[in-house]
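If you are new to this repository, start here. Below is one unmodified record pulled from the training split, so you can see the exact layout before writing a loader.
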Amino acid sequence: MDINQLNQERKKQKLSIAELAERANLPKGTVEKVLFGIVHDPRKSTIEAIEQALGLRLPEPTTAERLAGVTDMLRVSITAEEDNLLVLYRELGRKKGADMQRLFMEMGRLMLEQ
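And here is the target side for that same chain:
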């Protein structure tokens, strides 16, 4: 996908450069330079990270997922709010561990029961 298409998709999703950079786990300056055409030959990994952050590319299964039998990833359309929730859930797991993720899910279930 070319830079103009990436910019159009970012605008369509109403994402700021900072939000896109956070989703892509890239420095804001890098994303700006790529999307504004300052970097004429960006790294393939940078473009792939931006595409993935925009939902245009599926992530490769991790080693743990492959060992667990995940061989393919399913593309599902989700809203920006759902994506933010997923990002939060994953960040919670990275920073606080699986126990906190389980607590997070249990809180959601309890809210649904009320």
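Two things worth knowing about this chain: The chain is about 65% helix and 0% strand. The first helix runs from residue 3 to 12.
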